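Dear colleague,

Thank you for sharing your sequence with our group. We've completed the structure prediction you requested, and as agreed, I am returning the results in plain text so they can be pasted directly into your records. Please verify that the sequence below matches your submission; if there's any discrepancy, let me know and we will rerun it promptly.
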Amino acid sequence: MVIDDTGLYILDNNNYIPYVIPQGEIIICGVPGAFTPTCTERHLRGFANNLDSLSYKIIFISVNDPNVMHEWNRLYGHKDIDPVADPLAIFTKSIGQEIDLGESIGIRSKRYTMKVKDKKLIKYYENPFIEGVIDD
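Please find the predicted C-alpha coordinates below.
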Protein backbone atom coordinates (compact mmCIF):
# COMPACT_ATOMS: atom_id res chain seq x y z
CA MET A 1 0.00 0.00 0.00
CA VAL A 2 1.34 3.42 -0.99
CA ILE A 3 0.47 6.22 1.44
CA ASP A 4 -1.08 9.28 -0.22
CA ASP A 5 -0.79 12.51 1.79
CA THR A 6 -3.72 14.28 0.12
CA GLY A 7 -5.79 16.28 2.62
CA LEU A 8 -3.05 16.74 5.22
CA TYR A 9 -2.03 20.16 6.58
CA ILE A 10 0.43 21.57 9.05
CA LEU A 11 0.72 25.01 10.64
CA ASP A 12 3.81 26.89 9.47
CA ASN A 13 4.35 30.54 10.41
CA ASN A 14 0.61 30.95 11.10
CA ASN A 15 -0.27 29.57 7.65
CA TYR A 16 -1.92 26.28 6.76
CA ILE A 17 0.27 24.50 4.24
CA PRO A 18 -0.18 21.08 2.67
CA TYR A 19 1.85 18.44 4.47
CA VAL A 20 3.98 16.09 2.42
CA ILE A 21 4.89 12.85 4.14
CA PRO A 22 8.67 12.69 3.87
CA GLN A 23 10.69 9.87 2.34
CA GLY A 24 12.53 7.53 4.66
CA GLU A 25 11.40 5.60 7.71
CA ILE A 26 8.29 7.09 9.29
CA ILE A 27 5.92 6.17 12.10
CA ILE A 28 2.45 7.60 11.54
CA CYS A 29 0.17 7.67 14.58
CA GLY A 30 -3.51 8.27 14.03
CA VAL A 31 -5.58 9.35 17.00
CA PRO A 32 -9.25 10.32 17.47
CA GLY A 33 -8.47 13.76 18.82
CA ALA A 34 -5.89 16.10 20.23
CA PHE A 35 -6.18 17.03 23.90
CA THR A 36 -8.05 13.85 24.84
CA PRO A 37 -6.64 12.10 27.92
CA THR A 38 -5.45 8.83 26.36
CA CYS A 39 -4.18 10.44 23.15
CA THR A 40 -2.22 13.00 25.16
CA GLU A 41 -0.88 10.92 28.04
CA ARG A 42 -0.28 7.53 26.42
CA HIS A 43 0.11 8.17 22.72
CA LEU A 44 1.77 11.54 22.15
CA ARG A 45 3.82 11.61 25.36
CA GLY A 46 4.80 7.97 24.89
CA PHE A 47 6.47 8.75 21.58
CA ALA A 48 7.81 12.14 22.70
CA ASN A 49 9.52 10.57 25.71
CA ASN A 50 11.13 7.85 23.59
CA LEU A 51 12.36 9.76 20.54
CA ASP A 52 15.98 8.99 21.37
CA SER A 53 15.35 5.25 21.02
CA LEU A 54 13.61 5.54 17.64
CA SER A 55 15.24 5.78 14.23
CA TYR A 56 11.95 6.82 12.62
CA LYS A 57 10.45 10.25 11.95
CA ILE A 58 7.25 10.53 14.03
CA ILE A 59 4.03 12.02 12.64
CA PHE A 60 0.76 12.38 14.55
CA ILE A 61 -2.42 12.77 12.50
CA SER A 62 -5.90 13.59 13.70
CA VAL A 63 -9.13 14.95 12.27
CA ASN A 64 -8.51 18.35 13.83
CA ASP A 65 -7.46 21.68 12.38
CA PRO A 66 -3.75 22.58 12.07
CA ASN A 67 -3.88 25.10 14.95
CA VAL A 68 -5.18 22.47 17.35
CA MET A 69 -2.58 19.90 16.31
CA HIS A 70 0.23 22.44 16.55
CA GLU A 71 -0.77 23.60 20.04
CA TRP A 72 -1.30 20.05 21.29
CA ASN A 73 2.18 19.04 20.20
CA ARG A 74 3.70 22.26 21.56
CA LEU A 75 2.22 21.61 25.01
CA TYR A 76 2.57 17.83 25.29
CA GLY A 77 4.71 16.53 22.45
CA HIS A 78 8.12 17.36 21.04
CA LYS A 79 9.51 19.75 18.43
CA ASP A 80 10.71 16.77 16.37
CA ILE A 81 7.20 15.31 16.06
CA ASP A 82 5.14 16.58 13.14
CA PRO A 83 1.59 17.47 14.30
CA VAL A 84 -0.48 16.98 11.16
CA ALA A 85 -4.12 17.87 10.63
CA ASP A 86 -6.58 15.98 8.46
CA PRO A 87 -9.42 18.49 8.87
CA LEU A 88 -11.78 16.94 6.31
CA ALA A 89 -10.76 13.32 7.06
CA ILE A 90 -9.57 12.87 3.47
CA PHE A 91 -6.41 11.02 4.47
CA THR A 92 -8.17 9.08 7.22
CA LYS A 93 -10.86 7.86 4.82
CA SER A 94 -8.28 7.00 2.14
CA ILE A 95 -6.66 4.47 4.49
CA GLY A 96 -9.97 3.16 5.86
CA GLN A 97 -9.44 4.40 9.42
CA GLU A 98 -12.49 6.64 9.82
CA ILE A 99 -15.17 6.12 12.43
CA ASP A 100 -18.49 7.97 12.39
CA LEU A 101 -19.33 9.16 15.90
CA GLY A 102 -22.65 10.65 14.88
CA GLU A 103 -24.06 14.12 14.56
CA SER A 104 -22.43 15.51 17.69
CA ILE A 105 -18.82 14.65 16.79
CA GLY A 106 -18.88 13.40 13.19
CA ILE A 107 -16.08 11.57 11.43
CA ARG A 108 -12.97 10.94 13.54
CA SER A 109 -9.93 8.73 13.15
CA LYS A 110 -9.56 5.33 14.74
CA ARG A 111 -6.41 4.76 16.77
CA TYR A 112 -3.64 3.21 14.69
CA THR A 113 0.07 3.26 14.02
CA MET A 114 1.80 2.55 10.72
CA LYS A 115 5.46 1.99 10.01
CA VAL A 116 6.12 3.46 6.59
CA LYS A 117 9.22 3.51 4.43
CA ASP A 118 9.37 5.81 1.40
CA LYS A 119 5.56 6.20 1.55
CA LYS A 120 4.95 2.44 1.48
CA LEU A 121 3.22 0.68 4.37
CA ILE A 122 5.58 -1.73 6.13
CA LYS A 123 3.51 -2.68 9.19
CA TYR A 124 0.14 -1.71 10.65
CA TYR A 125 -0.74 -1.63 14.38
CA GLU A 126 -4.25 -1.18 15.77
CA ASN A 127 -3.11 1.04 18.65
CA PRO A 128 -0.60 3.89 18.71
CA PHE A 129 1.05 2.79 21.94
CA ILE A 130 4.83 3.18 21.85
CA GLU A 131 5.34 -0.12 23.68
CA GLY A 132 3.95 -2.25 20.86
CA VAL A 133 5.83 -0.38 18.16
CA ILE A 134 9.31 -0.24 19.67
CA ASP A 135 9.12 -3.79 21.03
CA ASP A 136 8.43 -5.14 17.53
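Summary note from our side: The helical segments are 37-48, 66-76, 90-94, 102-105, 130-134.

Kind regards,
the structure core
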